[in-house]
Amino acid sequence: MNSPAGAYLLDWEQAQIDEVVADIFGYHALQLGMPELEGLRSNRMPHQRLASPEPDSVLPSQTLNFAAHSVALPFQADSLDLLVMPHSLELSLDAHASLREAHRVLMPEGHLLEGDDPQTLLKRRALLDLIDSLQRRQVPLDGIGLQAHLLA
Question: At a CB cut-off of 8 Å and minimum separation 6, what does 33 contact?
Answer without folding.
Answer: 51, 52, 53, 54, 70, 85, 86, 87, 88, 91
